[in-house]
Write a structure and sequence with these properties.
- The protein has one domain: 3-Layer(aba) Sandwich (Rossmann fold), CATH 3.40.50.
- The protein has a 6-stranded mixed β-sheet with strand order 6-7-8-3-9-10. The protein has a 4-stranded antiparallel β-sheet with strand order 2-1-4-5.
- It has about 260 residues and is α/β, with parallel strands linked by helices.
- Helix 8 links the parallel strand 7 and strand 8.
- The protein contains 8 helices and 10 strands.
- The N and C termini lie close together (about 10 Å).
- Helix 5 crosses helix 6, helix 5 runs parallel beside helix 7 and helix 7 packs parallel to helix 8.
């Protein structure tokens, strides 16, 4: 499987000798993110579909890890539960001292706004807002941040992301890579503890994809955040610290990026 560059760079989950996520989690007892026996089931009886089966993982503060698996393997389901976008059927998710899976809908809305940054497969920018306004819109979801503070932070992020001269442009006036960089700035705008990234390179060519993932890693590391990147592309895992592999809704094992063929 690894000998075919097309297969290995698209929809494959290579086998490997790495530990199971459950065994790996025991080595990270002080992890800021702790996922324990999370299960997601749709339907019941003969129509029951298990989208996620007893997922357990731990990610340390300051780590940038990959969640690698083919399409339909449960990757997006898992990070949606971690980020409070989707409820779990059973199990628990803790971010620091917060039990995400026991929060009310109202508290989850605040949690997502203040503690989690999302970067989606398509940039999902508001089309009628400029790059700067897309960042400012997110800051408006958090109480206690003045308009002046928000503008200063937005301009600082756009400068760091190489977009200072594009701050006044609408999304349709930006390239695919520029839109993803705006999405990264938006995810970091409220200084979250956790950044969740869903297939950030899907609409980009290889060169631009590498630039975006390298930028994500740099920003997450520089700010001491914790990041999880969902991907089916082996070429992108080299920028991560660890790789969690998932297949058919089950986390199978944890690898070092250097052990996987790119």
């Amino acid at each position: 499987m690894k000998d075919d560059p097309v297969i290995s760079a698209t929809d494959s989950v290579p086998g490997g000798p790495g530990p199971s996520p459950r065994d790996d989690a025991r080595k990270h007892e002080g992890a800021i993110l702790r996922v324990s026996d999370v299960r997601k089931v749709y339907g019941e009886g003969h129509t029951e579909v298990v989208a996620l089966a007893d997922a357990t993982m731990a990610v340390d503060e300051g780590e940038f890890v990959a969640l690698l698996g083919p399409s339909g393997s449960g990757k997006t389901t898992l990070i949606s539960i971690i980020g409070g976008l989707l409820g779990a059927t059973s199990g628990s998710v803790h971010l620091g001292d917060i039990d995400v899976t026991s929060m009310s809908a109202r508290d989850l809305t605040r949690f997502r706004a203040e503690r989690v940054g999302f970067v989606f497969q398509s940039a999902n920018l508001v089309p009628f807002l400029t790059a700067r306004e897309n960042l400012l819109y997110v800051s408006g979801l958090v109480k206690g941040v003045s308009r002046g503070q928000a503008r200063t932070r937005a301009d600082q992020l756009l400068e760091e992301l190489g977009l200072a001269d594009r701050a006044g442009n609408l999304p349709e006036q930006l390239s695919g890579g520029e839109r993803q960089r705006v999405a990264i700035g938006r995810a970091l705008m409220n200084d979250p503890d956790l950044v969740l990234v869903d297939e950030p390179t899907a609409a980009l060519d290889t060169g631009m994809g590498r630039q975006v993932v390298e930028l994500l890693r740099r920003e997450i590391k520089a700010r001491g955040k914790t990041g999880i990147m969902v991907t089916h592309d082996l070429r992108m895992v080299e920028y991560t610290d660890r790789v969690f592999e998932i297949l058919d809704g089950r986390l199978t094992h944890v690898e070092q990026p250097s052990t996987l063929g790119h």
